[in-house]
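Notes from the 1:1 (GR / supervisor)

We went over the backlog. Supervisor wanted to see one worked example end to end before approving the batch request, so GR pasted a single chain during the call. The sequence is below; no edits were made to it. Supervisor asked that the structure be written out right there so they could see what the output format looks like.
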Amino acid sequence: MERIIGQLHYFAASFLWGVLLMFIYDFILAFRYKVRHGWLAKLTEDLLFWAVAAIFVFQMIFTLNFGILRNFFVISFIGGMFLYRKFVGKYVVRAIIAFFHTIFRPFVWSGKKISKILGKHTKSS
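Structure output shown during the call:
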């Protein structure tokens, strides 16, 4: 019975890891929306993200199941990623973009005012 409970924890953890990784990736997508990127920057960001994600997923597999990869882990992990992306992802990206917009609005406004003031001083000189 104890082994079954452990495998259920492993299954649930893999599902939640899939959801968590997609949630974190949504921050990258929102950042890309606000700051335009070229293909090389996108490739670099993706490679770094998935390399770090692989390290954390490997650590989770090693901790929860002694490094043994099971089919149900892969299915649960991909299922968590898919269900999150399908049903929640677009709303989270919109919320993150709105949050970024609200947080950075004073800085953008200040930057425009400062550049306008500096523009007037450089033209009059």
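Supervisor's comment: The first helix runs from residue 2 to 34.
Batch request approved.
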